Amino acid sequence: MDYEEINYRSYSRERELEASVAFPVLMRKTYLWMAMALAITGLTSYVVATNATFMGLMFQYPKAIWVFFIAEIALVIGLTAAIKKISLSVATLMFIAYAVLNGVTFSTLFYVYTMGSLASTFFVTAGTFGAMSAVGFVIKKDLSAMGHILIMALIGIIIATMVNIFLGSQGLDMIITYLGVLIFVGLTAYDTQKIKKMFMMAPDAGVHMQKYAVLAALTLYLDFINLFLYMLKLFGNRK
Q1: Which residue in 3, 66, 94, 234 has the fewest CB atoms around it within 10 Å?
Q2: Predicted local distance difference test score (pLDDT) of residue 221
Q3: What is the pLDDT, as a whole number, of residue 12?
Q4: Can you name the residues that pair with 113 across neighbouring β-strands?
Q5: In the chain, where are the structural domains located?
C-alpha cells in the first residue's frame, strides 16, 4: 500500500464522516427554520390584527392585499430560482420576509374566525403535519410517483378554485377543501422523504447545503400553511 493510496482512503473516510454528520445537522436546521418562520407568521398576523390603524387601512383599501400576494409569489420564485447564486444570509432574509408578508395577509383571519378555532386548528394541523412528516422520514417505499400525482392534483384544485370564484358553488368549494387537505397531507410525507434523500447525499453541512436547508424549510412551511388553511375551512368557527 503506497502513500497515495493511504491518503486517498483517509480522505474518503473523512468525506464519509462529514456526510454522516451533515445529515442530522441539515435536517435539524430545516425544521428549526420552518418553526421560526411559523412563529414569525403567527406573531406578525396577531400584531397586525390588533393594530386598529393598519387594519383600518386594510379594509379601506382591500385591493392592497393583492400586492402582498404578488410579493409573496415573487419571493418564492426568486428564492427558488436564485438559491445557487445568493448568499445564505440573503436566502434567510428572503424567507423571513416571506413569513412576515404571510403574517400580514393572515391577519384578516382574526376577523373571520374565532381565536379558539384558530388555535385548535393550528394544533390539529401541527399534529397531522408532524405525523405525516414522520411517515415520510421513516417509510422505505419511494413516494415519487405519489408526489407527482399530488402535484398534478394540486394544479387541478388551483384551477378549480379560480373557476369557482365565478361559479360560487358551495358544493364544489367543499370538494376542493377536502381534496386540499388530502393533497397537502400527502405532500408533507412526499416532501419530507425528498428532503431526507437530498441531505443523505450531502457532502457536508457547509454554507452551500445550508442554503438548500432554507429552501427545504420553505417547502415544508408551505405544506403546513396550506394544510392549515384548508383545515380551517373545515373546522374553523366563523364569527
Answers
A1: 3
A2: 97
A3: 44
A4: 238
A5: 3-235
| The amino acid at 180 | G
Q: How many CA atoms lie within 13 A of 82 on its CB side?
A: 15
Question: Is the four-CA dihedral 99, 103, 109, 113 of positive or negative sign?
Answer: positive
The phi, psi pair for 211, rounded to 5°, reads: -65, -35
Which of these ranges, 13-27, 34-48, 191-205, has the smallest mean pLDDT? 13-27
